Amino acid sequence: xxxxxxxxxxxxxxxxxxxxxxxxxxxxxxIPAGQPAKAVLRSxxxxxxxxxxxxxxxxxxxxxxxxxxxxxEDGAEIKKGDVIAEIxxxxxxxxxxxxxxxxxxxxxxxxxxxxxxxxEQVKDTGTEICDTRKTLPGLRLFQKYAVEMGGGANHxxxxxxxxxxxxxxxxxxxxIKEALDQAHLLAGxxxxxxxxxxxxxxxxxxLENGKADIVMLDNFELDELAKAVEIxxxxxxxxxxxxxxxxxxxxxxxxxxDYISVGALTHxxxxxxxxxxxxx
Length: 280
Description:
Aldehyde Oxidoreductase, domain 3; six-stranded parallel β-sheet; single chain; four-stranded antiparallel β-sheet; 11 helices; TIM Barrel; alpha/beta
């Protein structure tokens, strides 16, 4: 669940960005002060909802006079034409908040929707879909929350969550054994150690060392991935990564891998089409 403090900080920053040095000049010159209006948030395509609490916070932080009625909730499937929420209040403030609210809601719902499609593809295989740190700066918590709403799992949130030894770390440390030995020595018992490999020989080195908790099998061809998972079974948690798409994710999951990490859930997602319609 997103913290109200985190939501408020992000929404205030977005509103300040949109208002620039003043106010909503268009609404102020066209709409008399105090004129009321009623609007609905409506989905214009099928998907999974995420970010409603953020969108509604945008309205409430713009003006305390809003009366809002919610018809759906984060994580729910929505259909084209569904009314998500009804908002009644000052017309000027309604239009001032509109774009920021929709930016959060459409973006987060797009993430939840594509995540749900990946999750559906691996249904009944025992594999979990998870995100990555390939997120937009400043929006990581919101994007990862949206992944959860779509049925996915969160990978680490930052560099301090867990030890993830990648190829460049291995190169600097002097090899897989050296990297794992050092990590195990200094990590402490509460930190998981994950290491990335891209060859079968590296996987064997990791298993022989025995100090990693998770192995990331990066950009393995499908047949090699299946062999790697079979070798690692019962010894270490496995994660597949690298170029995963909706077309390939099912076959990857059928190798028996425990997790599949998908950067596309957050780094290049298409927004779900949601609009705000004034009803008179």
